[in-house]
Amino acid sequence: MGFAKHLGIRIRLLPGIRALRLLRSHHFGRSAEERESARLQRIRPDNLFQPSGFTVPNRYPHILREVKALVQDAPRPLRLLSFGCSTGEELLTLDSHFPGSLMTGIDISAPRLAIAAERLSSLRQQGRLQLFQGASADCLPPDLPPFDIVLAMSVFRHHDLEAAPARCSHRLRFADFEKTVTGLAGRVRPGGFLCMTNNHLDFTETAVAAKFEPCATTRHDPRNPLYGADDRLKPQPERDIVLFRRKEQTGPVSPGPAVADHRRDISSGGITSGPTGQT
After folding, report:
1. In sequence order, what are the residues at sequence separation of 6 or more whose Cβ sits closer than 8 angstroms to the Cβ of residue 147?
2. Domain that holds residue 165
3. How many helices (H) and strands (E) does the chain have?
4. CA distance 88 to 19
5. Fewer CB within 10 Å, N side or C side of the chain?
6. Bias category Low complexity: which stretches (predicted)?
7. What is the CATH number of the domain that holds 236?
């Protein structure tokens, strides 16, 4: 990150400046998305991770191509969960990559879900899409069958951490992340996949990671400083694990990093970033 950009982020994070900026954006933002992002940051609902709802269609094509190849022999229809589905572009993209699949979307923002519901009305009418407002997998019906693929793309992050402060707990707490990702992981069927990218929190330091094996990596993005279980900044890796397969065997979960076997680098320059501070 360049010095000028780093300094700019530091300045806008000063408490008084940040509060005034959010107040202005909440009431006078140029777009509904800017106003909603500011509202969420001001009220700070429980379990808020990424406040921005920025999204575009087909944002991670290299990752979805890899997942598609890995599930080509899985029984159809596939069951997919998009955690942090925002206004629905990711769900539309998933429908194009996995035609006929049964999809579920979760988002913390009611206004964004309303846009998604309208945009995806045909899928809902076909009975292939369910939308839930919530901040974790706890909002899902307990009897919902497990998923073949669970995605949390650019969710476990906060743009204020791009400046790489020594600790992340003023914006994200690893304990909240671990609880949330454990709930999502529990919704993945054995042999299914958990897909995460653009994270600021290290999944391999969670206890539930022992139930998964990494299977794909991408080059580490310096805008994504990584934090560990102690909420402290970690040495930055050369690559980020973006795709995990749930192990077929069952058993008790023990703390420790996931097994680092069967990784394939699928790095690509195809990730689309949002406006400054809205990756």
Report:
1. 79, 80, 81, 104, 187, 188, 189, 192
2. 46-246
3. 8, 7
4. 29
5. N
6. 267-279
7. 3.40.50.150
